[in-house]
Amino acid sequence: MALVEFGKDKPMDVVLIGRVTLDFNPNEMNRTLDKVKTFSMYLGGSPGNMAVGINKLGKKVGFIGCVSDDQFGDFVLNYFKDRGIDTSQMTRAQHGERMGLTFTEMKSPTESSILMYRDRVADLEIRPEDVSEDYIAKAKILIISGTALSKSPSREACLLAAQYAKKHDTRIIFDLDYRPYSWRAKIDIAVYCSIVASMADVIIGSRDEVNLTEGLAEDAALPADHVLAEKYIAQGTKIVIIKHGKKGSIAYTSDKQVYKVESYHIHLLKSFGGGDAYGSAFVYGLLAGWTVPQALQHGTAHAAMVVASHSCSEAMQTVEQIDAFMKEHASEKVISELEWEAAL
Predict the structure, then answer these.
(1) Would you call 79 helix, strand, or coil by DSSP?
(2) Which of 52, 182, 239, 252: CA 20 to 30 A from 291?
């Protein structure tokens, strides 16, 4: 029996709610942003990238979100439609809100940063009345992004979507996705992210993001990863994945298994975008009924392929491409079992 089971009669595989933006990645590499002259534009935002990634892997995907009522909003809607991602639940901003913009800086293969423009962005204007109970009931999985909880009315829309998902046996995956520019105060993160975490079947986030969700003070003695995982599992969560940057990530499951996930050795082009690729392939593996280690391995393989590419959304791979990459790197062991209380 699979650790996470899905309603077989549901026609939609995955519905995502939250942030879709535009990425501007520099064409001139290995320099600071102030010295870049030209950029390539891509669809961006963690939920947007994951929607593209899961769709590229062959699953039926829908998106609940808000875009600007201008040419950039047209770009996003057309990009999704051209790939078969359902946009029937997407709306247009009504008061001049614009698409969020992300300018990425690639100073070296190992040193990247991002500059976000998030003032009055359209993606935070999705409203509770725009969330269809019937639409979520038809999905096997609802993916909620933490950034979408940072402001109203998007916050209430996500909480309502989560309630609908629980009511109709739609699995909830919570990607903590913390972006500091959107939140009023850290206490708000602890309030709203903890609500969704308590309802989630799968939680994915960095250790820093988990600390914020738990309201843990930076100068306090922090509990071990497994202690936090135990808390979520006691609430009903099936899988908790805690990321530790270059050290890798650690996955805890409700059947008391622990897996360490490391990275494949590749020629790195940038240090961002891997998380969205990781998440999309991991979700695909869960839907396919794979074991947790199999899904994790496909996730870290997909991440390696995307961080070796110029874009995030355009670099998403097919199942066959990921399988070929894993075959090529078969000598590398990236998944290992750990004891429950082990630390990275």
Answers:
(1) helix
(2) 52
- The residues that bridge with 145 in the sheet, in sequence order, are 175
Amino acid at 75: F
Short-list 264, 237, 269, 267, CA closest to 252: 237
Joined tokens for residue 184: 């009023």
Closest CA to 241 of 233, 228, 250: 250
Tell me the pLDDT band of 1, cut-offs 50, 70 and 90.
low
* 103 vs 122: CA distance, rounded Å: 17
**Cβ neighbours of residue 262 closer than 8 Å, sequence gap 6 or more:** 248, 300, 333, 334, 335, 336
The residues that bridge with 98 in the sheet, in sequence order, are 121
pLDDT in tens, 49-70: 999 999 999 999 999 999 999 9
Q: Which of 102, 24, 89 is nearest to 51 (CA)?
A: 89
Is the pTM of the predicted complex or chain greater than 0.85? Answer: yes
Within 13 Å, how many C-alpha atoms sit on residue 230's CB side? 7
Under 8 Å CB-to-CB from 231, ≥6 apart: which residues?
none
DSSP state, residue 291: -
**What is the DSSP secondary structure assignment for residue 318, as one 8-state letter?**
-
